[in-house]
Amino acid sequence: xxxxxxxxxxxSASVGDKVTITCQASQDTSNYLNWYQQKxxxxxxxxxxxxxxxxxxxxxxxxGSGSGTDFTFSISSLQPEDFATYYCQQFANLPYTFGQGTKxxxx
Amino acid sequence: xxxxxxxxxGLVKPSETLSLTCTVSGGPVSSTSSYWSWIRQPPGKGLExxxxxxxxxxxxxxxxxxxxxxxxxxxSKNQFSLKLTSVTAADTAVYYCARYYCTGGSCAFDYWGxxxxxxxxx
Lengths: 107, 122
What we know:
heterodimer, A: mainly beta, 11 strands, globular, B: mainly beta, 4-stranded antiparallel β-sheet
């Protein structure tokens, strides 16, 4: 299995801040990497696909980059509704695997 | 707009079989770009992909669960189902059904059900 390691596991930030989350794969996943947002009691929501493509309807303050084993997810200016848990997910190989999640909390 | 809705018992006894159904609306399960998936999330923990099924019944399973999992699809009802046998407390989780949509080499879980909590307890 490809192991996905996110950093940090939790993060405190303020409205208006820029935040960055990293995701490292245990082996090359090319750009087969997606990012999801999950709010408490809700299903995950797709934000970024293919490492850097914004899903339709997702605000442009969200972005992603990277390829191979190292990926980055950023929010350029945090909004109150962005406080949630974020997951990366690889689809290079079965089984599809997710990172352990990064919980973004209000400072 | 595709919508998915899980249904099934919220409580299952240890050693018994967990059975869930996902009803899809807003699009056919026979879509050639869609792989219908199950994903679970134990309380307070991360996401674990369980399986997918294609409209022609081609399947993919997580090796960690493969010996206990079976999935099926019913195109006439626009539903797909999950069976997980010999459950233990470790199988207690919110179970999500989701559409895994693939186009041009790009794939992602783009639509999800709301999730259903299944508790394994006697």
